[in-house]
Design a protein that fits this description.
The complex is a heterodimer of chains A (507) and B (122). Chain A is α/β, with parallel strands linked by helices. Chain A contains 21 helices and 14 strands. In chain B, strands 2-1-3-4 form a 4-stranded mixed sheet, sandwiched between helices. The chains are: A alpha/beta (507), B alpha+beta (122).
């Protein structure tokens, strides 16, 4: 502090409430220098498991820690490893899911770019635990900096003898190959990801058999998300009790969220599981800007749901989020205010999943398309009340019958917005009105003649010449006000942008 | 291939460099160079720090490093100065601001308050 001005990030309310485990080294060390990772006790956990622990010990620590998959589904990591260890095979594989694709999520990229060695070390630990000597990192080609730093990290680790043959002189071999994904969202699904690593078109396949039995190249395999990996070396070094003391009864540790949307402080936020959403929004994020009201927060991206203002005190953990129809997801947290139309949000996410559906199974390929058509109808003012029921029917059908996680969760944004914002759907259908003034066909621009001073800035900038002068001169003004012809208006919003007198509004 | 002793030596030496423990007067500058930082213009900031420290001949006292994402998107580019136990977060940096931080903070020892996180509106 200098002159009562906060000069350090560590003293800000954005940072103080956070608890950094997965992000411990991000923004602290040089990610392209293995020596700096070593200084932060790097590769000591690997040394500990190789010299002091049996594979069963390692798995027991993972089970005791209560660590669950940070990719979103929350499957216990230790259990996954235990299953994979239980199958005998000449070769097993350890995979890292770095195919981060949710709109608005960038936690995994930050870990890969800020602390690549932590992922490598954790994967080697898992290799020892399940009996594997080969790992794969599946990372999006859209993350060139992450790919570059992973390659540098791998090279350095090999040079130091921390990767490759006979690590730490213990006879344990482990190495990693990096595979680049072409950016298909479905490749974040575990079976599709493995199919893609094998060199095939990235399509999911039915489970069982689960990857722990028959995964990559038909061999027992585990797949964990980047953030999951980032927790593991510290769990080994500090013990399961240390880790499980953070968080709630069933959700242990911390979760990283990519906080974005209508919030004053956007950024990466790592908080203990169970922290109330209101703490994240108000204290860490600094609240909703421009005096607007908080309307909802979206978690889990295209697989998740919206948390309305009435549930703002919900604890952010796997159980409580599932209870209100959302999911933890990989960690995207998008804040919405009164200017966001919830039907439009549902349409946005469904457009995404419909585009990204791989097309292998019918419920997802055709079902999402039909749902999207209905949403299109509703947002263009042609919906009927039966459409809401049809949406729900289709949603449950797709959830029950789609082949993989993409399809099974794709209807979630629609279901959750219908559950909490049914009135908005009804306004679109019955009143042909979009309350948030987002859906173009369902609102119009209106000039307040008493506020308009007749400067004609709007008139001169209107592309379809929809604005004309009237005869009305408001009291105290010298020039006549203008009006908008709704038949000609294309709802581009140029007028409202140009008006310095707040005379134009959306209604 | 490094022996256990070599690794331990690297670990100790580097720990001192990062925590600045037992190094009175030493400073460490880190510039956020994840994709987000680079896109916001962190590269010229990093270069300005490296060049500034070199020109001033204080390379033995001040280390300049790139780092990953600090997590404060709208403040990028971000540079942090560690001076003993004191941590200063400079935000919305550019090359000119970096030059001033080199002169006043790294050489002069005085925090450039107006560039810090608390003095910057977003």
């Amino acid at each position: 502090m200098t002159d009562n001005i906060i000069t350090s990030l560590a003293d800000t309310s954005f940072y103080k409430i956070q608890r950094r485990i997965a992000l411990k080294n991000c923004g602290v060390i040089d990610p392209e220098n293995i020596d700096e990772y070593l200084a932060m006790d790097g590769y000591m956990a690997l040394h500990k498991v190789l010299t002091e622990m049996t594979p069963d010990d390692v798995i027991q620590v993972m089970l005791d820690s209560g660590l669950r998959g940070r990719g979103g589904a929350g499957f216990p990591t230790g259990l996954k490893w235990k299953f994979a260890k239980g199958y005998d095979a000449p070769q097993k594989y350890v995979c890292c899911n770095a195919d981060e694709g949710d709109p608005g999520a960038f936690m995994d990229r930050s870990v890969l770019e800020g602390d690549p060695h932590v992922v490598l070390e954790a994967m080697a630990i898992a290799g020892y635990a399940i009996g594997s000597s080969q790992g794969y990192i599946y990372v999006r080609a859209e993350y060139p900096v992450a790919v570059k730093r992973l390659n540098i990290a791998l090279q350095q680790a090999r040079e130091y003898g921390l990767f490759g043959k006979n690590i730490y002189g213990t006879g344990f071999d482990f190495d990693i190959d990096i595979r680049l994904g072409a950016g298909a969202f479905v490749c974040g699904e575990e079976t599709a990801l493995m199919t893609s690593i094998e060199g095939n078109r990235g399509e999911p396949r039915p489970r069982p058999p689960f990857p722990a039995e028959k995964g990559l190249f038909q061999s027992p395999s585990i797949l964990n998300n980047v953030e999951t990996w980032a927790n593991i070396p510290q769990i080994i070094l500090n013990g399961a009790d240390w880790f499980s003391s953070v968080g709630t009864e069933k959700s242990k540790g911390t979760k990283v969220f990519a906080l974005g949307g209508k919030i004053r402080h956007t950024g990466l936020v790592e908080i203990p599981m169970g922290t109330p959403l209101s703490t994240v929004i108000d204290e860490i994020g600094g609240g909703v800007p421009n005096g607007k009201k908080f309307k909802a927060a979206q978690t889990g991206g295209p697989s998740g749901g919206c948390i309305p203002a009435s549930h703002i005190n919900v604890q952010m953990d796997y159980e409580h989020l599932a209870e209100i129809g959302s999911i933890m997801g990989s960690g995207g947290l998008i804040v919405m205010d009164e200017d966001n139309c919830m039907v439009d949000i549902a349409k946005f996410f469904l457009t995404f999943t419909c585009d990204e559906s791989c097309g292998k199974c019918t419920p997802c390929r055709i079902g999402t398309k039909r749902m999207l058509e209905i949403l299109d109808r509703i947002t263009s003012g042609k919906g009927t009340m039966e459409d809401i029921d049809k949406l729900e029917d289709l949603a449950y059908y797709i959830k029950d019958n789609a082949l993989c996680g993409l399809g099974q969760t794709a209807p979630n944004p629609v279901l959750s917005t219908i559950r909490f914002f049914r009135d908005e759907y009804e306004a679109h259908i019955n009143d042909r009105h979009c309350p948030a003034a987002v859906c173009k066909e369902l609102f119009h621009y209106v000039v307040d003649p008493d506020k308009c001073i007749g400067c004609t800035q709007c008139l001169r900038n209107c592309p379809p010449f929809a604005i004309t002068k009237t005869d009305y001169i408001a009291e105290g003004h010298k020039l006549p006000s203008v009006k908008i012809d709704n038949d000609k208006c294309i709802k581009c919003g140029a007028c409202i942008e140009k008006c310095k007198f707040d005379a134009i509004s959306k209604q | 291939m490094k022996s256990m002793q070599e690794l331990a030596a690297i670990r100790e030496a580097m720990k001192a460099e990062i925590t600045l423990a037992g190094k009175p007067g030493a400073k460490r500058v880190v510039v956020g160079m994840a994709t987000c930082g680079i896109a916001a213009g962190a590269t010229p900031v990093l270069n300005a720090f490296v060049d500034g420290v070199k020109e001033a001949g204080i390379g033995d006292k001040v280390s300049v490093k790139q780092t990953g994402c600090v997590g404060i998107c709208q403040y990028e580019p971000v540079a942090e100065v560690y001076d003993g136990t004191e941590r200063t977060t400079y935000v919305k940096m550019d090359a000119e601001k970096a030059k001033r931080v080199v002169e006043e903070h790294l050489i002069g020892g005085k925090v450039v308050t107006e560039y810090t996180i608390g003095a910057t509106e977003v």
